């Protein structure tokens, strides 16, 4: 049996308390299986169906790895669409509610650059966004990833389906090679395995199959 209490994980007590206040009394199966390797710094491929709590799995990992006193982008989450990036940004902010000090920025296409440039100048610990816009910021020099510790590809299967493969490769190429890389997906097609081989190092694979 895999433990399902968040308290069995090496988490900051105030983060644990916040999980309780969010009503997260126990880990979902994908959280219980992916969080131990994530928290030990391993690259992880995590597959589980929509609605299984994948955001909190990588979110808790991100929040636990941050050095809050260092004001550089340490976590980057790539999402296929603006709606999904907004949802992830929202969930990360809920998870980070135990402290006022963690800055999370959502950067997506379809909106003007100006305000995003201003926000980036103020700095952020975690950036969530869509690949095209993030790549634009990297190319303009308004975003740099030299402090990046953790890269998350969320809904990786959908990003590949939507043709983001080249943008993803270009973003990954500008991230430090000693980063931790997490790949989250609802399905596990061959293209995900191929993507993993190019962006991850000795990944642990965690799959939670549907029981029906
Ligand atoms: P996925 O990314 O797998 O589709 P989400 O991360 O969007 O799923 O989570 C689905 C819902 O489950 C969200 O409303 C989230 O707040 C909730 N949730 C996540 N983890 C837990 C937990 N441990 N206990 C209760 N609810 C949770
Ligand atoms: Mg999700």
UniProtKB/TrEMBL annotation:
Family of this protein: Belongs to the DEAD box helicase family.
Signal sequence region: none
Helicase ATP-binding domain residues: 35-206
Motif (Q motif): 4-32
Name of the protein in its database record: ATP-dependent RNA helicase DbpA
Domain of life of the native organism: Bacteria
Gene that this sequence comes from: dbpA
Lineage: Bacteria, Pseudomonadati, Thermodesulfobacteriota, Desulfuromonadia, Desulfuromonadales
The DEAD-box RNA helicase Q domain, residue ranges: 4-32
